[in-house]
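User: Some background: our group keeps a shared notebook of sequences we're curious about, and every so often someone picks one and asks for a predicted structure to add to the entry. Today it's my turn. The entry only has the sequence so far, pasted here. Could you supply the structure so I can complete it?
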Amino acid sequence: MSSPWEVLVIEDDQLDRELVAELLTVRGRGGLHVTQVPDLQAGLVALSARRFDLVMLDTKLPDASALHALRAVGEKAPLTPILPHPAYISAQTRQTARQRGAFDVVVRGDLNPMWAAVNKLLTLSTFGSDLRPAAHAVGQ
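Assistant: Of course. Here's the predicted structure to add to the notebook entry:
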């Protein structure tokens, strides 16, 4: 078996963080290694320490707004896909997140769509697809 994909989960709510990590672990069937951190600052430290294949990003962090967090993660790891996972999202916020470099946005409680997006991202990255064209287009 090849080495597992590395996924960073940045989520301040411990229960939500554990839910996302468990979903990834169970559905990934051992093919994912999940690192969990409670805030943006810890996420940026983790991104400085090693490479991740995917960042799952909460949009309500205690130390950053959603767009600030998206920008900071994108600057720290410009080739790593980011998948925000808010509790709720409007169509306008989803579009703004995509323009700022998010691959997609999934609602945290919708586990099947969340897993589908994660699976699609990791599959695309396996084939070397450019997953962050929007970020490059707007210079973020």
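Suggested note for the entry: The mean pLDDT is 78. Residues 111-126 form the longest helix (16 residues).
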